[in-house]
Amino acid sequence: MTRPTPLPFEKLPPRAFHAPARIRFGDCDPAGIVFFPTWFALANAAVEDFFRDELGLDFHALHATRRIGTGFAHAEADFFAPGLMGDAVLLTPLITRIGGASYGFTMHVHRGAAELLRMQLVTATTNLDTRRPVPIPDDLRAALARYQERCTDGR
Fold first, then answer.
1. Torsion-angle region of residue 130: left (phi > 0), alpha (psi -120 to 50) or beta?
2. Mean pLDDT across the chain
3. pLDDT band at 154 (very low <50, low <70, confident <90, very high)
């Protein structure tokens, strides 16, 4: 397995969405380093902001009203440097794949120019009542595709 190389912040697509977060005391282990599961909670919070602020979709209504779940079906991470209590970080999702009932994205996490970690995430869309996969809703699919294209072509 080839280990990825950290990507400097300035190498991200110029029109990509960035969700700010602050590392708090409760996010860390006794050494003051971010406890690794915290990164996945922060990634999910960034996805909620991404839906609202970038895609123009109400994440909570999608789940509560429309009964469409968007849970991680696959998650992996490469850690490059520790996150520390008090850090201000930016989480940047980049769409890598839009499938039938799932979509993939890379979540880059930076402190300043330095990439701290990179997550490869796959989100499955499910009917929350039956707990079965369902196709990505058309409005979500279209919003993801617009964002992916804008990040790819740089416009």
1. alpha
2. 96
3. low
Domains identified in the chain and CATH numbers: 18-153 (3.10.129.10)
What DSSP string runs through the chain?
A: -PPPPPPPGGGS-TT---EEEE--GGGB-TTSBBPHHHHHHHHHHHHHHIIIIII---HHHHHHTS-EEEEEEEEEEEE-S--BTT-EEEEEEEEEEE-SSEEEEEEEEEETTEEEEEEEEEEEEEETTTTEE-PPPHHHHHHHHHHHHHHHH--
Measured CA angle at 82 (ends 148, 96), to 5 deg = 15
Question: What is the pTM for the complete model shown?
Answer: 0.95
18 versus 3: the higher-pLDDT residue is 18
Residue 152 identity:
T
Close Cβ partners of 152 (under 8 Å, ≥ 6 residues apart): 13
Q: Give the model confidence (pLDDT) of 10-63 as tens digits.
A: 999 999 999 999 999 999 999 999 999 999 999 999 999 999 999 999 999 999
- Which residue reads 């969405």 in tokens? 17
